[in-house]
Amino acid sequence: MDILVIYMILATLVLFNVWASARLIKSEHAERAQKVYQLIFIWLIPAAGAVICIYLHKPDASTKPLKGPNDTAIQNNDGIDLALSKDSHIND
Prior knowledge:
The protein is mostly helical. The protein has a domain of 60 residues. 53% of the residues lie in helices and 11% in strands. It contains three helices and two strands. It has a two-stranded antiparallel ribbon with strand order 1-2. Helix 1 packs antiparallel against helix 2, helix 1 runs parallel beside helix 3 and helix 2 packs antiparallel against helix 3. The longest helix has 25 residues. The N and C termini lie far apart (74 Å).
């Protein structure tokens, strides 16, 4: 019975590392060399490495466009997202 618990813990760690690795590979925020080093880190330090890499590649709240009810997200010339209500008017 104890061996079954150990196998389940190991399987959970492997699945967590696989999930973290897939998430890292799909990430567009890191260069190839950085991804390779972080993949090595994930697999050398199983749980902690995966948690740290997931934390580093979490979506940034500041990159989401500003939106509210009945609003459309727009971008100004500097690449900054602004919220434009359908009811508002822009004077040129």
